[in-house]
Amino acid sequence: MPSIASYLIIKPLSGGLVIFLAILYLIVNLMVLFNEKDVFLVKNYTQYLPQVLAVAKTAADSIADIFHTKNYTTNIKSDNSPVTEADLRAHQIIERELLKIDPSLPVLSEESSMVPYHERSQWPKYWLVDPLDGTKEFIRGTNDFTVNIALIEDHNPVLGVVVAPMLKQYYWGLKGGQAFFQEGDLGDKGDKEPIVIQVNQTLRTPIKVAVSRYHHQKSKVWKSFIEKLGPYELIQCGSALKICLVARGEADLYPRFGETGEWDTAAGHCILEAAGGKLVDLAGNTLKYNTKPTIINPSFLAIGSIELINICCG
């Protein structure tokens, strides 16, 4: 097996980050030895994790630099959504560095040219990226936007990394493995150690529901859905952090009615499943990726408790 040094492709990296990633690599390999569930799958992608964390950190630092300047260009895309200089710079970093990790793996990013379905339907494995999830939050000056990087194999996310640049929060997970959370800059002295995170498996009262602060919950679908739950408490948050809050057990449920892209959910989806949760459509079916010409998700639920799935999808 190659040494950890061979994975650290972004130069220069701090000595602390090199040590952190080396320790992380050892931890994940030990996890594989003692966890029989999906051992071969976890083992296969353990080698990517330190590299992808380093890539995500570099992109996150780039976004933070632009955020602090408050001086950047913004354009409107063909779908009427905004794109900023920060989105494009992070996209360039991530695409370039992921191709260095494995040139054989395609990269599908929100900011790349759309690949026709007849071509990408032939991909058994590829990277799925949202270089800046929460562009509207970024523009409004809030801090809950993220970098999302996922590895998809056979229509399922098998590796996920989510980084919140301004909160200095890192989430990661492997399919069949565990999910982790860390605050602070990776590898810096005094930062908190990474912790294993798990969903809340109990049905508590009130049910904690993660929602966007900008998508107002006024539709008949929302009102009909929320009435099923009984007492509830809303937690407002942006980007993939809503899924990550469910993975950490800070929220019980994140319902999303309306359009999202597959790159919005894939990384958080992997982390959520590694933490013991589910990301399902309104019929209770697990979301799949790259199965149709459009990359738009159906309405979905990110859920921790099996009992809550029965309530919401029953």
Keywords:
314 residues, seven-stranded mixed β-sheet, alpha+beta, D-Maltodextrin-Binding Protein, domain 2, Fructose-1,6-Bisphosphatase, Chain A, domain 1
Structure write-up:
The chain is of the alpha+beta class and 314 residues long. It has 2 domains: 4-197, 2-Layer Sandwich (Fructose-1,6-Bisphosphatase, Chain A, domain 1); 207-313, 3-Layer(aba) Sandwich (D-Maltodextrin-Binding Protein, domain 2), CATH 3.40.190.80. The chain has 10 helices and 14 strands. It has helices at 15-34, 39-46, 48-69, 85-101, 117-120, 135-140, 220-227, 241-248, 262-274, 306-313, and strands at residues 74-76, 82-84, 107-109, 125-133, 146-153, 156-164, 169-174, 179-183, 195-197, 207-211, 232-236, 253-256, 278-281, 300-303. The strands form 4 sheets. The chain has a 7-stranded mixed sheet with strand order 3-4-5-6-7-8-9, sandwiched between helices. Strands 12-14-13 form a 3-stranded antiparallel sheet, sandwiched between helices. Helix 5 (117-120) links the parallel strand 3 and strand 4. Helix 1 packs antiparallel against helix 2 (39-46), helix 1 (15-34) packs across helix 3 (48-69) and helix 8 packs parallel to helix 9 (262-274). The N and C termini lie far apart (47 Å).
